[in-house]
Specification:
Strand content: 15-25%
Order of helices and strands: EHHEHEHEHEEHEH
Number of strands: 7
Largest sheet: 7 strands, mixed
Low-confidence stretches: none
Distance between the termini: 55 Å
Shape: globular
Strand order of the largest sheet: 3-2-1-4-6-5-7
């Protein structure tokens, strides 16, 4: 039997000056890296708690980079490298590979701590009778894309990191006559103004946001 649901977490190494760079002017490189690490482990924890058939951490830089060896990642994860190309090419490659062996894939990042295990379970269930599932975020992108079929046009010529991402992805699905399920909009943590949306477990950095007002 083909395994049902595989979760891919797309992640950058939580290194100073490399991850969450738009927060660096506000938090500094070290605190920003600390936050990026906390967000990474939070995303991993939620993905594993969702109890899918498998969870993959798809990373940049490649898995051979020393930074990944120092993080004590859970044994339940498999790790792959994102490889070359723009974000769309990398995500498309990962989704296509997974859908060769699984009936559903959930592609998520690490920027949306409100993306919980329960929401991941809900998204997987939606893919029982939908070809796609989207979880929009307030900046116009998405925190999760779920697919039960692969279609390269969902990843081609998309202006990533712009307010057009979710709209264009939705339009591509509609052009395919796909059934698309949408979850309630959440917030990514990309800029200082977004820090107020961190959950209480991130209070150490939320206080920085309050103090900055």
């Amino acid at each position: 039997m083909i395994p049902r649901t595989h979760i891919i977490i797309f992640a950058k190494a939580p290194l100073p000056g490399f991850a969450k760079t738009r927060l660096i002017p506000f938090l500094g490189e070290e605190q920003t890296a600390k936050l990026a690490r906390a967000l990474l482990f939070h995303a991993i924890d939620q993905a594993l708690q969702a109890n899918p058939d498998s969870v993959e951490l798809c990373v940049t830089p490649d898995v051979s980079a020393s930074c990944w060896q120092t993080l004590s990642l859970p044994d339940a994860l498999t790790m792959t490298g994102q490889g070359e190309g723009d974000l769309g090419q990398r995500m498309a490659r990962a989704c296509k590979r997974v859908l060769n062996t699984h009936s559903r894939v959930l592609l998520m990042g690490t920027d949306c701590p409100a993306l919980s295990a329960d929401i991941l379970k809900q998204a997987a269930t939606m893919l029982t009778d939908h070809e796609a599932c989207l979880l929009p975020v307030s900046d116009g992108g998405y925190a999760l894309l779920g697919l039960s079929q692969f279609e390269p046009s969902l990843f081609e010529a998309i202006p990533w990191s712009t307010p057009q991402v979710t709209r264009l992805t939705r339009e591509r699905c509609q052009a395919l006559n796909w059934r698309i399920a949408e979850l309630d909009e959440l917030h990514d943590i990309d800029e200082p103004k977004d820090l107020v949306y961190l959950p209480d477990t991130f209070n150490w950095v939320k206080q920085e946001a309050v103090n900055a007002k």
